[in-house]
């Protein structure tokens, strides 16, 4: 019979029973219980009516009732046959019981009338149910007992009527005896249908086949023994020996099947734990704590039910510590656990060791007896789950149902082995949860990382529209790291994470993406509300941070993105929102510190992506070229050289400004390609001039990334040798701030280049560190005054003072001073009066393509008298 909530409920004389099914939802279980009550009333009504009809209207056999003790002896025989039954689980959820009730039944046909056999069967069956505490199904089983015996006598009568004669013959008794277990099984299968449990037709047919085979063997033994003894009274020892031999075969067979059943149960429990763990990993987690534990209590409930079915227990209780610091969770399989849950002081929970303890209320001390009474149990098997002396949980099995004598040694052994497997599986599950937590969380702050954030926000993004993803960047961390070290930078990141958590609350999904970048998901806010929250968050994060007795000011940028009308709720929206928020926070660098994403931002970054991906091809196809801007000596008006400037004529975007594509190329790691291209073109140009008798230098801008390449000096040397250009005709211009970003790597490279004879110039001087201490460390030959000061010195006395100071500082260090951005005569005259060495700007010339540069040089030069192989270039005014 299926488990209906109170343990295996079966007609006791039946030779086969089906037990243990998955637990059902509460509402469906209540409906099933109502259906089963109606079914019970129907079975009981039909049983009483059939028994009354047979007793009153048709008594096919009267038997021999002269001896008064026949009834009690039959009842005792039925009771003994049932208690000697052998339970075998043929598969998960199906229990097959080999019993000997057919033996007293077949004998009862010959020695007692219908009423006596019926009464004996009822007394034995109901007594067994009460001993096993299956009180909830007594009425159903009473009706089943009535139908079994009534059907058995009716079939026997029909067979005898067909054979003829008034005395009962053995074929009729054998047919009637087989009817009883068959009727019990049909009623059980009908109950399975009423309870809406599933059983395949093939399984039901195989079950009925086993019942008929075992019933036939038992009935044949009983019938043969009765006939032999009635015919030859001295033959009873032989009959007893045959019965004992058959019992021994049954017991041996049951032991083999028990071993097979126990192995399957161990495998099932281990696989259920492992499978639930893998499902927890694959399951989308909608809460942050789900990512940490991956726990589903319902899965452990199924495991408890499986153990309960295997032990034929009324109840199995799993008390599990699923997380190292959490309290134990209680999961019950079978009958509900009465009273309050056990605490750490409970004597059954605080058991030492790891072996199974067997407690009976009649033999236990007062504390254990009280604990059993609190659980509503008469006996219990209890085993702790331990791993490396750490208590992972406790398993309790209460009240064995299938045997009147309770749990035996096989049950103790099975539970002990199962507990060992369960402890190992639980320990592995906790390890998996730890690995899963580490995979989804940032080790420094304990917040979610990028994969964890994506996992958590997937469902909210898919289901809701009133959400926003915020991206926060702090730009002070690298400075703190350079000045105080990574430890203090990490402390600053942790402090920022705490401020975000305190500002937004613990329920807001929050992640540290990388460095000092955070992301969070806001829900239930409109666009103005999201913007106000972003402003409040920026204000909190921009407040000074106390770091090592210092106060650090942190500039904070916040960008956010919300789902648009075009979004369709697919998984890709998670990545889209994150990308949009990232684009928005990058756009804040234009001035605003809080920006919402707009589609035009995406177009800008898409354009930048196209430029990066097409750059190599653009060089190969000639879209990228080098223009040259002349530099002249202020005192002599001679053209000393040019600065090589890269230009890109894009087929789709047109002429691209270097300030747009050079930073993108540099960020994409392609600056080596760019520098190599410009250097090669510049050296080819110098070589042509040398072949024409001109000696002009060329300046190439150098990226800070090139100064991190230890092989860069060797590459430059190879290029100079290839084009046979003297090193002094090549100038590398670099920004002071770029060099000092990582001086330990940059300075050795610069010294090596300087040793080769290459001229080194500090570009944009006045905008970086601009200190004498830093400038003295650099092996440079020139300083270039930033054009912002040169452009403003005609109207701003402050800019004029800065330019004069730089000229004086450069000369004091023996450096050549170059002024950029010279666009007016007054600026040229002022620079010349200060003693500035070289001028460069639109007043002299804009950057020119190679052919236009040649024309410009031809128009503004004169051949020096007396020289035939060398030209002196002089600016003509």
Automatic annotation (TrEMBL):
Domain of life (superkingdom): Bacteria
Swiss-Prot/TrEMBL keywords: Membrane, Transmembrane, Transmembrane helix
Entry-linked InterPro entries: Cyclic-di-GMP_PDE-like, EAL_dom, EAL_sf, GAF, GAF-like_dom_sf, GGDEF_dom, Nucleotide_cyclase, Rev_trsase/Diguanyl_cyclase
GO MF annotations, alphabetized: cyclic-guanylate-specific phosphodiesterase activity
Domain GGDEF: 465-599
Pfam families to which the protein is assigned, alphabetical: EAL, GAF, GGDEF
Renumbered residue ranges of the record's region Disordered: 1-29
Signal peptide feature range: none
Keyword DNA repair included in the entry's annotation: no
Domain EAL: 608-861
Transmembrane segments annotated in the record for this chain: 38-60, 67-86, 106-131, 138-163, 169-195, 207-229
NCBIfam families hit by this protein: GGDEF
Protein name: Bifunctional diguanylate cyclase/phosphodiesterase
